[in-house]
Amino acid sequence: DEEICLAQILFSESKNKTHWVYLGWSARNRVDLNFRGHTYCKVANWPSQFSAISLTSDPSHTKIKTIHRSYLKGILSSTDTKLWESAIQVGRTIITADSVLNPVPDAVYFWYIPAYESGNINWPSWAKGKVAPYVLRKPNSKDVIWAFYRQIDIA
Questions:
Q1: Alpha-carbon gap, residue 110 to 12, rounded angstroms
Q2: Separation of alpha carbons 92 and 4, rounded Å
Q3: Is 139 helix (H, G, I), strand (E, B) or coil?
Q4: Is residue 7 within 8 Å of residue 20, measured between CB atoms?
């Protein structure tokens, strides 16, 4: 189940395998630090953390199980099936990897900047005035697409 929960974080946040490495390690950091959960399923279902999974607590992991059940039943598109299988593999690799491979040590927050630049979503209040110690840029560009932050004291 832990691999499935981490795969759901990856799959729901991005369809880009390179992004998954950074996102997955951020989730692992949360588990390792017991920040908003001590398991991947608790981290994935913590209220208001991963909007693509759940905006409210989902203790039974219903949304995660729905995607996985769809996969098992063969009703995902062929593209999504391949991506889901890749997300599980990337998740498995991150869960078992040595922590020295972590590209975003101690980062527990992240956000996808293009979503906010579109003007459709407000900048997260927790990121205002903060400098991201880790960023992921578009290939061959200075444009930041993901920003990763350490634990932030939120009132």
A1: 14
A2: 9
A3: coil
A4: no
- SS3 label, residue 67: helix
Distance, in Å, from the CA atom of 13 to the CA atom of 54, rounded to the nearest integer, reads 12
In the chain, which residue ranges form alpha helices assigned H by DSSP?
Answer: 2-13, 17-33, 40-45, 62-73, 78-96, 113-117
Asked if 104 and 148 count as a contact pair (C-beta separation under 8 A), the reply is: yes
DSSP letter at 152 equals -
Contact 76, 82 (CB under 8 A): no
pLDDT tens, residue order, the chain (155 aa): 899 889 989 988 888 999 999 999 999 999 999 999 999 989 988 877 775 665 444 555 555 556 666 766 766 778 888 888 999 999 999 999 999 999 999 999 998 888 777 776 777 888 888 889 999 999 999 999 999 999 866 54
Residue in 154, 138, 108 with CA at minimum distance from that of residue 146: 138
What confidence tens digit (pLDDT) does each residue in 32-62 have?
999 999 999 899 888 777 756 654 445 555 5
End-to-end Cα spacing for the chain: 32
* Residue at token pair 């998954």: 20
Q: Quote the pTM value.
A: 0.84
